[in-house]
C-alpha cells in the first residue's frame, strides 16, 4: 500500500519537474503545459538518456520517469530522475510549428518593447491555431480596409506582471488585439 502511494507521489513530482523544465525552455507558464503520459524508466547515463550534442556523460543507473507533455499543440518528451529533468531533443517541427514559434517570439518581443521590460518578464499563457475571416486577423482598426479572405494563423496570449495580453497572427505577422485583459 505504502509503495503504491509513494509511487503516485513520485510520479506527480516527476510530472511537475518535467513541466517546469519544458516551461523554462519554451519560456511559458508551466500551468499551460499538459501532461499526456508518464511511465517509470531507468536511465543508464548522467544525461538521463537525452545527451546534448558535445555533452560528456558518465555511466550511472538512475530510476525515474519518461514524461510526455503537450505545449503549443506539440508533444515533447522529458526524462526525469535524480531530482532533475532533461528535455529530450524534439522531433523536427513542421512548417506551421516553426511559424508558431517564430510568431510567439515576435509577439513577446513586441510586448516587451511596449511595456519597456525584458523578454524574461513575458510568459506565453497559450498559443492555439485560429482562422480569421479577413486580413484584419480579428482585430479591425476603424477606417481600415482589409482583404476579404480566409486567413490561417494563431491566437497568442501573453502575460506580464499578472496582466494578460492577446495577439492575433497570420503566418507572417502579429498584431496586438485589445490592449490588455484584467
Can you characterise this structure?
This protein is an alpha+beta fold and 182 residues long. The chain folds into two domains: 2-87; 95-181, no CATH class. It is 25% helix and 40% strand. It has helices spanning 2-26, 95-115; strands at 34-45, 59-71, 74-81, 84-87, 123-132, 151-160, 163-169, 174-181. The strands form two sheets. It has a four-stranded antiparallel sheet with strand order 1-2-3-4. Strands 5-6-7-8 form a four-stranded antiparallel sheet. The chain is elongated and about 65 Å long.
Short synopsis of the structure:
This protein has helices at 2-26, 95-115, and strands at residues 34-45, 59-71, 74-81, 84-87, 123-132, 151-160, 163-169, 174-181. It has 182 residues and is an alpha+beta fold.
- By DSSP (H or I, 4+ residues per run), the number of helices equals 2
- Shape designation: elongated
Which parts are unreliable, with pLDDT below 50 for 5 consecutive residues or more?
1-10
Structural class: alpha+beta
The major beta sheet can be summarized as: 4 strands, antiparallel
Quaternary arrangement of the chains shown? single chain
Percent of residues in beta strands? 35-45%
User: How far is the N terminus from the C terminus?
Assistant: 46 Å
- What's the number of structural domains? 2
| Radius of gyration over C-alpha positions, nearest whole angstrom | 20 Å
- Mean of residue pLDDT? 84
Tell me how many strands there are: 8
Give the helix proportion (percent range): 25-40%
